[in-house]
Specification:
520 residues; alpha/beta; 2 domains; six-stranded mixed β-sheet; 31% helix; ATPase-coupled transmembrane transporter activity; ABC_transporter-like_ATP-bd; ATP-binding; nucleotide-binding; ATP hydrolysis activity
């Protein structure tokens, strides 16, 4: 569908300057960012890179004026937008966060996109044309009255971006804007952003771990150094050609220097071939607010999850992948068909996982939600990792051993005493995976397990999961990460939009060889 051309008067791109700027979160011994000197010209398109935990999101939050006050942390140096502090420039800045859930404000799609415009006192007659154009730009083809609670994670990302584009800010800040989008959606959203900033004249700053998505459309790359300051800064081609290998070693995703992946044994040699969980003509759905019956989002599903194998669950946003994953994990009841746990997994509990107690699920099915914060319960990273082992009744020494090993393996040991909610997006994701691994379940159900990871933490996570597969653990992962699929998956299940009136969804399935070759 062609995008209608428009735009009112162009806005003036904002200028960003930093002089010795830094920020230390309250309760942390080390600053998230320090010694930052930066000058971004109006209208410039800048890609900000850096290893996980380098302070990229902290910088974005500071530019948007939402870091907080003196009680939330300590600021050094100076950070300005058009010569003013960010807190005095909020109408000039539009921010899309890593977590799109946190930016959904209102109950209906149209109202949510209009919210920012209304707060900026945009004339009423201008708001709704902006809303319609922004939704078209990001490819969110839904009625204005569609409930935001019914959106998938990827659709919420598009919604958040539409809300920012409708405001037409002078500075557009995007923090991993394509992290949970399907491949077509990545290109669609990126191009929508480019059309918007080109037409408006806005300055663009985008954080993205995967360089390939943006390298040909930005003017400049800035790489933050976790030790403070800037690791590299310059025109895109110059930085990638002169510094590519060094940046890859530091954890930046450089297309010419991909991370190493573990050698996987053929699927037929997986230790323990027993089926743990099987679905027969399964239908899945969720019960909307104030309704008694689930709205079916996918049906006709047949699959079997075997011990020692990894299954990738893929497909476009909104096809029901997360709903299927929660159903397989025993957290949602099936909307139809059969879902059966075998004795190898159930161990006498009965064949229906959704009827098991939470304590029973701990050592059998471990679930990582799409939004890491939805599963955080404790006030520190170490306490968060201890919850599962303690609930299983493990001795104190074994609890400590498991927690310390995971902290070290997933590069979280320096954050052991930090509040989980203050971590970066990638650190939150690794913590959410670690909390599940701490109970050593037979089946792992992971929703976007690799988002927000630099190349080093991505490779470590893949190696850790490969080791678990070798011990007989089964893995089902909802993912748009094709490198993850190629490195780990033995089978692929793809949900595709369908035409049936009952669910609007159909299913296709196929097998993959461990190295990413199509299996016969």
């Amino acid at each position: 569908m062609p995008v209608p051309r428009r735009r009112g008067p162009a806005v003036t791109g904002a200028r960003v300057t930093a002089s010795g700027w830094g920020w230390r979160h309250a309760g942390r011994s080390r600053p998230a960012v320090s010694g930052l000197d930066l000058d971004i010209r109006p209208g410039e398109r800048v890609l900000v890179l850096g290893p996980s935990g380098a302070g990229k999101s902290t910088l974005m939050h500071a530019l948007a004026g939402v870091l907080g006050d003196d009680e939330d942390g300590d600021e050094t140096g100076e950070l300005l937008i058009d010569g003013r502090r960010p807190s005095a420039s909020r109408g000039r800045v539009g921010l899309v966060l890593q977590d799109p859930d946190s930016q959904v404000v209102l109950a209906r799609v149209g109202d949510d996109v209009a919210f920012g415009c209304e707060n900026l006192a945009v004339p009423r007659a201008e708001i709704w044309p902006r809303v319609g154009q922004a939704l078209a730009d990001v490819g969110l083809d839904l009625p204005l009255r569609h409930p935001t609670s019914a959106l998938s994670g990827g659709q919420k990302q598009r919604l958040a971006l539409a809300g920012v584009l409708a405001m037409r800010p002078g500075l557009v800040l995007l923090d991993e804007p394509t992290a949970n989008l399907d491949p077509d959606g990545v290109v669609e959203v990126r191009d929508a952003v480019l059309r918007s900033v080109e037409a408006s004249g806005a300055t663009l700053i985008v954080i993205e771990h995967r360089v390939a998505v943006w390298e040909h459309v930005v003017d400049r790359i800035v790489v933050l150094d976790p030790a403070g300051g800037i690791l590299a800064d310059g025109p895109t081609d110059s930085v990638l050609s002169a510094e590519g290998e060094r940046l890859a070693t530091a954890g930046v995703w450089i297309p010419r220097f991909p991370p190493a992946t573990p050698d996987r044994r053929p699927r037929s040699h997986a230790p323990g071939a027993e089926v743990l969980l099987s679905a027969d003509d399964l239908a899945v759905g969720r019960v909307p607010f104030a309704r008694r019956q689930a709205v079916v989002v996918a049906q006709g599903l047949d699959l079997a999850l075997h011990a020692g194998t990894a299954t990738a669950l893929t497909g476009p946003n909104g096809t029901g992948k997360s709903t299927l994953a929660l159903t397989l994990a025993g957290l949602l009841a099936p909307a139809g068909g059969r879902l059966t746990a075998t004795d190898a997994l159930a161990a006498g509990l009965g064949p229906l996982p959704h009827r098991w107690r939470s304590r029973d699920l701990l050592a059998r099915i471990g679930t990582v939600f799409q939004d890491p914060e939805h599963q955080f319960l404790a006030g520190s990273v170490r306490a968060e990792l201890t919850i599962g082992p303690r609930a299983l009744g493990l001795a104190g020494a074994e609890q400590t051993e498991r927690v310390d090993a995971l902290l070290h393996r997933l590069r979280l040991d320096h954050l052991a005493d930090a509040n989980p909610f203050t971590l970066s997006g990638g650190e939150k994701r690794r913590l959410s995976v670690a909390t599940v691994l701490a109970t050593r379940p037979r089946l792992l159900v992971l929703d976007e397990p690799t988002f927000g990871q630099d190349s080093r933490t991505w490779a470590e996570l893949v190696r850790l999961l490969a080791e678990l597969l070798d011990t007989g653990t089964a893995v089902l992962a909802v993912t748009h990460d094709e490198q993850f699929v190629a490195a780990l998956a033995d089978a692929r299940l793809t949900l595709v939009p369908g035409t049936g009136p009952a669910s609007g969804r159909s299913v296709t399935a196929g097998l993959r060889a461990p190295a990413g070759r199509e299996a016969s």
